[in-house]
Amino acid sequence: MELKSLLSFGLGGAVVFFLAAVLLFQWLSRKNTGAGSIREYEELRLPGKSTRKHAAHSLLQRIYAACERIPLLRAYLTTIRKRLSALQPYDEWKLRLETIKIALAAWGVLLAAAIPLVLFIRDPMTLLMIATGIWALHGMITDVFVHRLENRLLRQLRHFMADVRHHYHRHGMVEEAIYDAAEASPYEMALHGQEVYVVLTASHPEQKLEQYYEVAPNRFLKGLAGISHLVKEYGDKTLQNGSLYLKALGKLTTELNLDILRREKLSYLLQGLTVIALIPILFTKPIESWARKYFPAMDDFYAGKLGWITKMVILLIILCSYVLLRNMRELDGEHKARRRKPWEQRAYDLPWVRRVIDRISPEPGTREVARCVMLLKETKSPLRLEWFFVQRVTISALAFLLVLGLFVTLHAVTKHQLLYASVKPETMFGRLSPEEEAKARQTAAFDRRIMADVKGVKTKLSEAIFDELRKDPQFAREEAQLRAASQRILNKMEAVDGEYLKWWEVMLALLIGWGGYFAPVGILLFQRQMRHMEMKHEVDQFHSVIAMLSEMDRMSVEHLLEWMERFALIFKEPIQHCLLHYEHGAEQALEELKEQAPFLPFVRTVEKLQLAVEKIPIRQAFDDLESEQAFAQEQRKQDYERLIETKAGWGKMIGFAPMMSLIFGYLVFPLVYVSLSQMSVYYEQIQKIQ
User: Fold this and answer.
1) Which residues share a beta bridge with 239?
2) What is the pLDDT of residues 72-110, one digit of tens each?
3) Which of 183, 325, 370, 549 is the most exposed place for a label (fewest CB within 10 A)?
């Protein structure tokens, strides 16, 4: 006991020290972050600057280099780097710094929470649930840090556009305005500003612009680079209300502000829901201990088959809630973690896996294949159809094996419970005294001995049990105790013999495996439902893009489609398909675009593009955008509020589902079940008395 206490204090002290170091690094790195320009930030990296911030950053860089030498840690850091590379694509030093900060912060918090729980909890099922919660919490912490960097870049971009407007008034030159704004911007935004300046001043700006489109972290930076390039190449134009470039910057800033407000409000309404969904993991053991303390009859429920099934159902609900909440938050992001080669692709490259998948998957041209292809396109899934079926088959096989293993484990647990559980009177309230508890354990041991002695008997089992019991002097004198003990042991042996894998359990495992085959489809359907809520918002963004570009003399419908494709998330695949077939016939390509994306507001926009192909100029086709601007802004505001409220409602319902299942499934249902069982026992005893 002393060794355990010493070990606990030692590990606790190490965790506290580690967490304090992580928090110190975070504080030092956040101090004055974002206040300086890129020139000031570069000064911190010079060897002669002996500042606390530089010392902390240098230490973090050495920690990163040390972790990179270990294969497992290197793979873990690479997964975080892939998510940050879209935000910091130009600076390896900064990318390594942010990666190791996120890794240290995440694992510091997790170790501080996990080690005390692991030291004092011995229940394997509770440990499994805690491990699941730690895995989910790690993903949540990583998401928080990545989203914080995304939001910080968007806020810096808003100030950057205001500086560009100011310097454009001074110089009247786009590239000079971009350069001066980048000089005064925080470090992250200054990197992108300098890259836009390089694009504008390159000898082949179109080629550099396309390269920048590939690495730009959001559509607003793409729009800024694109509109600046157009004005730089073809010149600005004076409209009734001022400069065309400044008007385009104003519309782009309006879209950026709306996106920032939407993110902040949605994050505020959804904050903490992931934690609320994971909290039931910590409360399963306390609820079980409380129920066992005040209702001793609950011991058999929690230790038995039904209790294990209830725990597994609650764990499954927690996992589903976590996955759905994470998908809701990921829908707003434009860049997911970029993987060089998904595990589905690596598995499909194996010859035997390819043969199995080709035999199991439906034939090309069937309705199911068409639905799956459309679903993958609508949700922007990076998986090909063959890889998607690899994922479905893998999840199906895992679900079948897990459920089958669960049934085998439940039978083993029930056998152990029958053999080793203390023999005590069936009572709802009260607890046995220590003497009675010791006697109950002795009775259980006696039953095990008798069961072992008569184990090989196939016929006349009750008589064999009687014969063994009569060898005991106490039972030989008391006939009533002899019959009661014989009946008890016979019931135990029949129950133990009945604990084997049954055919209906195998069928149920197959049924759940079949359900696991459709689980990835269900997640994609949920993503599609969430994206359908964003369709009107994306069409409004298209209108803002068209309003920015329609006044330009050299603008064509094809160029408008290219700009719409850069801003698109939901309609990206149909617009790309339209651009691929545009040269073979504009009218036919636009008709196919309407068929592939039959959303009414989007269809109306495409119809106006059809008019602008040959019949009328673009500015005449979309002349209603300016005349109905006030009404459109008010309607868009209401749509935003409705969208945010709907998403928040979905999030709250999903987030609180695990807590409700814990209360009703792990406390209320067991109490009702045990109460009804006790009532039936009391009723039988009353019937015997009468």
Assistant:
1) 242
2) 777 778 878 877 776 666 567 777 888 888 888 878 777
3) 370
By CB atoms closer than 10 A (0-12, 13-18, 19+), residue 11 is: middle
* Spatial CA neighbour of 542 closest among 524, 558, 519, 565: 565
Alpha helices (H) in 331-424, listed in sequence order: 343-348, 351-360, 367-378, 385-420
Q: Measure the CA–CA gap between 245 and 18, rounded to whole angstroms.
A: 52
CB 205 within 8 A of CB 199: yes
Tokens (6 digits) for 665:
């499934």
Tokens found for residue 248? 């385009």
The answer to whether the CB of 508 falls within 8 A of the CB of 534 is no
What is d(CA 370, CA 380) in angstroms, rounded to the nearest whole number? 15
Q: Are 406 and 312 in contact (CB under 8 A)?
A: yes
The 10s digit of each residue's pLDDT in 312-361 is 888 888 888 888 887 776 545 444 444 457 888 888 888 898 898 888 88
**Digit-coded pLDDT (tens) for 274-300:** 888 888 887 888 888 888 888 777 877
Q: How far apart are the first and last CA of the chain?
A: 54
What are the E-state strand segments in 52-187?
none
Residue positions counted in the chain: 690
Give the separation between CA 187 and CA 479, rounded to whole angstroms. 90
Burial class of residue 637 in the structure, from the number of CB atoms within 10 Å of its CB (0-12 exposed, 13-18 middle, 19+ buried) = exposed
**What does the radius of gyration of the chain's CA atoms come to, in whole angstroms?**
33
| Three-state secondary structure string covering 538-598 | HHHHHHHHHHHHCCCCCCCHHHHHHHHHHHCCCCHHHHHHHHHCCCCCHHHHHHHHHHHCC
- DSSP state at residue 338: P
Distance (Å, whole) CA 278 – CA 255: 35
243 beta partners = 238
Residue type, 356: V
* Full DSSP string of 627-648: HTHHHHHHHHHHHHHHHHHHHH
Contact (CB, 8 A) for 520 and 392:
yes
Helices in 172-243 by DSSP H: which ranges? 174-183, 187-201, 205-215, 219-234
Task: Report residue 117 as tokens.
Answer: 């729980």
Tell me how far apart the alpha carbons of residues 101 and 81 are, in angstroms, rounded to a whole number: 11
0.85 surpassed by pTM? no
CA–CA distance, 491 with 485 (Å, rounded to integer) = 10
Which long-range CB contacts under 8 A does 141-145 form with residues at least 24 apart?
Answer: 141/102, 141/105, 141/106, 141/109, 141/110, 142/80, 142/83, 142/102, 142/106, 143/326, 143/329, 145/98, 145/101, 145/102, 145/105, 145/106
274 close to 588: Cβ distance less than 8 angstroms: no
Shortest CA distance to 493 belongs to which of 543, 441, 458? 458
| Structure tokens given for 215 | 């690495």
Are the C-beta atoms of residues 137 and 319 closer than 8 Å to each other? Answer: no
